[in-house]
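Comment thread on ticket #2218

A.B. wrote:
> Attaching the input chain for the structure job we discussed in standup.
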Amino acid sequence: MLKFSEYPYSRVDVVAVQNQLKDLVKKIDSCENSDNLYDLFMEFNEIKSNVESMSTLSSIRHTINTQDEFYTKENDFYDEMLPVLQESYITVDKAFLANKNIEGLKQRVPETYFMSKEMEFASFDSCIIEDMQLENKLTSKYQALLASAQIPFDGEVYTLPALEVKTNDKDRSVRKEAMKAYWGWYQEHQEEIGDLYDQMVHVRTKMAKKLGYSSYIELGYKRMKRYDYDQNDVAQYRKQVLEDVVPFDSSLYEKQKDRLGYDTLYAWDEKIEFLSGNPTPKHSREEMVKRALNMYKELDPKTGEFFQYMVDHDLLDLDSKKGKAQGGYCTFIPNQKSPFIFANFNQTSHDAEVLTHEAGHAFQVYESQDIKPLDCVWPTYESCEIHSMSMEFFTYPWMKDFFEEDIDKYYFNHLSGAIKFLPYGVLVDHFQHEVYANPDMTPHERMKTWRELEKQYLPHKNYDEIEILEQGGWWMRQSHIFMDPFYYIDYTLAQVCAFQFWVRQQNNDSKAFEDYKHICKIGGTLPFRKIVKEANLIVPFEQGCLKETVEKISTWFDAHQDVK
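C.D. wrote:
> Ran it. Output below, let me know if you need it in another format.
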């Protein structure tokens, strides 16, 4: 049984792959029956699976240690190579679609594959390869810049994720000074980050124009594979958040201020729900993994089998360390049929959430791993996040094993954080719409735009003494804005769906987890709206969906205001 460290890696021979794909096109062109066409389709899937396995391994090992010269070079190689191969992939896909037996293939392959190809054709042309390569280089540069941060604080040197822990300290003065130091680093690198993003915006706009779009917004929606909703749906949804969620969240912040006994709730206070301190896991990383394994075994035989696999194969890299990229993610290595979870544990409740959120992603892909083709193993992003955010709620009964006497504080903190997140999530989305609708804005104008929108969605914000935030600099820490444009509204859409699963749990609906497992097995074979309906949930775009959800959450908080 291979451990992750033993998974074999070799750089993809691009020329050899391109030649394989050229030969494949010839075979497709001369293919006379549906069965043979399907066999060629599976051959194509195998080629792509190998490429993705090697590029994913390279990416994982690079993010584990951004100072590893070998995998840094490999990462740079894939930044250059993947856009080139995408051109070859599209040539093969077009050959399949042109074959007279295509209807037979469509009967055996999920509908989303062909929907995906339509989007890819509309979002790629060889004329943008150089632009895509530059885009990849810029995102890698941003990631490396943030990973390089070494910030002096209180006699020690911290990375950004490690210093963030101090911004949640029980001591108010420590929180304030830590936040000033954290954002001081961004202030110091403001021009560099602003310039990187400016280059990203312009190269993406350039790609959109080359492909015939009026702005990157249209191209961005194609690249994100928004199959069954558009900008109008999203704008309507943002309106619901403004009307139904923002006033409720404002009341939560007001109650939080009173609970803490403060005259003013400053930015460095927001993450503190209780004067006695936020809930923290009571165990080491090793012990938490052991308890997570027990939790998943008790939750369901399938989740138990899945997490045992993750542990046995060392597919969890959880410790924060020097040179490691910040953030967390889940990915999949097709050749090994292995999900992989990457995180930066920081001794906060976030650590437990990683073992539920990222594990939700990992469980979904573990369940859908045998779907063919590879393109349909994962759903689109907004559907993906249903699995992760819902798993956070389904594991509630076991959180006492992690938080012990702080369990009530954990429930309060987690639910509060989830509902408070919605306005922030749509703010990130709204900001990006404004940026790409007006690509020639200066970095200063982008800062101003963020702050103006922030005052709508997060009217409680008080940044006293942190100049860069008052100027509108918060967006600089949100990596999705740089690396995955328009990937953020997805979290909020999924959160609304996860809340519905939570409501069903509250109502002791025994079918809720069965519905959850069902949509995990579906993978990416259906578009978002259909997946939501398969789970017996309400699509978030439907008028009134948020209002009903907020009312149920409000009732819960009314019954738990005495938590301290």
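A.B. wrote:
> Thanks. Noting for the ticket: DSSP finds 24 helices and five strands in the chain.
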